[in-house]
């Protein structure tokens, strides 16, 4: 404990107009936080001020980040400001590092009023990269719109912030540190905790670790390759998969968290995890997976690089949900997917007579259903999968352990499990085209014009012929969601063109980019014919892609000749 009470200071500041949190918090280039005076302090103060004073006083909050550049600098400021704003205790991951799923877990374990997650997820790191701050509430999940709107409104009028500038915390030592503050009756406490253990203990209560250990290190064990992409998941993979479940140490690669993610883009897809894909193609490994920077996303691969589409991944987990002991005890309450995600999960829900919810993009919508006891499993096309009752974030390692549990139960390869699934439920061919860093004004104008066109009465019933394929529009809209829990309505969640055969074209502007706009185009088409379900997705979807580009004039309107990323 400090010997002399630390001074609490209130310092003047001026607001910035651009601190509206997106779907995953406030994300900007690192230089914005570094070069704009009090930019970080303003947003952190706005978070604290958004919490009622009576709730804040003496409360517990959690702080953790993915280890990217500026992480520790930001934590020092967050700690100093937490003390000055009346927070009683901060729980922080060792070295300031804690995965987003683990932050959610720790918030719930300590019954904290919330947590601050320092991450820009799958965006690049380093001095020239991105940085982000996200506020999670007491349920462990991302703050709902009412909270983020309040934070934004405070940030627009902020005039001062409170801070203890002399407070210094040791992030390198597992410890409880206490500090006396002037005019405070109780000391301020900072606990530096093992970033892995609470989360690992939660997983032990969900999965059969004995069965997983036999799968990974028993007499007939499989060989796996897991790529942490130099993000936060390295320590978790090493501790849980290697040390506890017995997978060889060399089955985990890129496990040292680096501020710049080794100069790579920590996004687990076929483009940015190309090294893992190439390794898997060699046939040496039976199962592969990659994680993003903060550990909430995952990509699953089978032997010879067999790619599991994220929409298929959540559907296969649903179809094999009782391979996971947790669900053997609790049963299944419901399934959910984000609207752009393919309808593969719908097919399982329909066959098993389990409720299916279609939500806007954003994990907070799943969280509301989870809190109401309506949801057991959910997923989204952007490589996110999660389950109810353990945390309120998507969870990359949970998804990997779910898949390994299915392999242990089914004793089949990843590819055979997927192909059996298609033969049972049919296949949703799915692809996503991302157009990144598009001129914002051009993207907005394109979306507005496209909406006007597809909502015209004449557009209904319109036919599009591409080669031998003929598609007829059944309906088109701008997706609107009414939350079944609290009745709130979320409008303008994406433009949809739905054809009579169930195929869908969806257009969205993403809320997680840093520079310009990201236009996303999603194509989803169902096929039940056994002679067609094993065909190449890009070939099967080519007619719908042609229609999507023709209707939107996306290339002409944005000046792009093609997408930045195809998944």
UniProtKB/TrEMBL annotation:
Q: What cellular-component terms does GO give this entry?
A: cytosol
- Could you confirm whether the keyword Phosphoprotein appears in this record? yes
GO annotation, biological process: carbohydrate metabolic process
Q: What is this protein called?
A: Phosphoglucomutase 1
Mind telling me which SUPFAM superfamilies this protein's record contains? Phosphoglucomutase, C-terminal domain, Phosphoglucomutase, first 3 domains
Its localization reads: Cytoplasm
Keywords from the named record: Cytoplasm, Magnesium, Metal-binding, Phosphoprotein
Q: Which InterPro entries match?
A: A-D-PHexomutase_a/b/a-I (IPR005844), A-D-PHexomutase_a/b/a-I/II/III (IPR016055), A-D-PHexomutase_a/b/a-II (IPR005845), A-D-PHexomutase_a/b/a-III (IPR005846), A-D-PHexomutase_C_sf (IPR036900), A-D-PHexomutase_CS (IPR016066), Alpha-D-phosphohexomutase_SF (IPR005841), PGM (IPR045244)
An annotated Gene Ontology molecular function: phosphoglucomutase activity
NCBIfam families for this protein = PRK07564.1-1
What does the sequence similarity comment in the record state about its family?
A: Belongs to the phosphohexose mutase family.
Pfam families linked to this entry: PGM1_C_vert_fung (PF24947), PGM_PMM_I (PF02878), PGM_PMM_II (PF02879), PGM_PMM_III (PF02880)
Domain of life of the organism encoding this protein: Eukaryota
| Gene3D superfamilies named in the record | Alpha-D-Glucose-1,6-Bisphosphate, subunit A, domain 3, Alpha-D-phosphohexomutase, C-terminal domain
Annotated ranges, domain Alpha-D-phosphohexomutase alpha/beta/alpha: 19-161, 198-303, 311-425
